[in-house]
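# nightly structure sweep
# worker-07 picked up a monomer target from the shared queue
# config: single-sequence mode, recycle default, output format = structure tokens
# input follows
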Amino acid sequence: MRKRIFIQKFFYILLLLTTFIVVIFVFGIIIYLIVKGGKAISWEFLSEKPSNGMREGGILPAIIGTLYLVLGTLIFSLPIGIFSAIYLNEYAKKNRLTRVIRLSIVNMAGVPSVIFGLFGLGFFVIFLGLGRSIISGSLTLALLILPIVITSAEEALKNVPDTYRNASLALGATKWQTITRIILPQALPGIITGAVLGIGRAAGETAPILFTVAVFYQPNLPKSIFNQAMALPYHLFALITQVADAPEDKKWGTALVLLILVLFFSVIAAVIRTRLRMKKRVRL
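# output follows
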């Protein structure tokens, strides 16, 4: 009995220390970026266009371009991902075909992002004739995060108790009415979590947008989804590798803005998720 209690306490302390170490590293990265890049953050840095070979001015076009890409990625990936999850969890039978589909989704999540970039270049840019544009970049990033969205949405749907489905069907609702009015509202917090994870990955990727949308320098803001655009990940890559004597504070400032942008979406999603959960508790 004492041995069992000792083992339980040992693993509890081990897991607690591991979590604590991870949290320290995360906060360490954030604090380091704030210390190194905080000096560059100003209204001019956020609202002006780059100048003098990107050694001066701000990063407004890169911020706007990143927002366009994130928005386009969500528009394309969320409907496809959610409908795919609904089919796999609510309609598809458990057979060899669905196992192959799920295995393919898992394998897609492990494909390097540069492969998605090359596919986007060959299919969207060249074959479909969309050119290097925001829509090509958004479609490529949507494919990149699709496995995350599908997996998280399917898990959220699985976590909804079957009693909800049985009660709705017993009251005369159709299967589609049960899914849209009962199951999806209950699974929405988990779906939002998957969308946030997808946003985080899409906003920070460089390789896919390098082949499909990103441009080294474009001071004018894009006017159409068929225009090229600057983006924060590629802008940071260009500052570090291609701009000689670029100020260090601008490099770290760009990285800090990218981090803040991702955290901003995460906070908004967390607020929405919390409100939805509170509504569920009130109804119950």
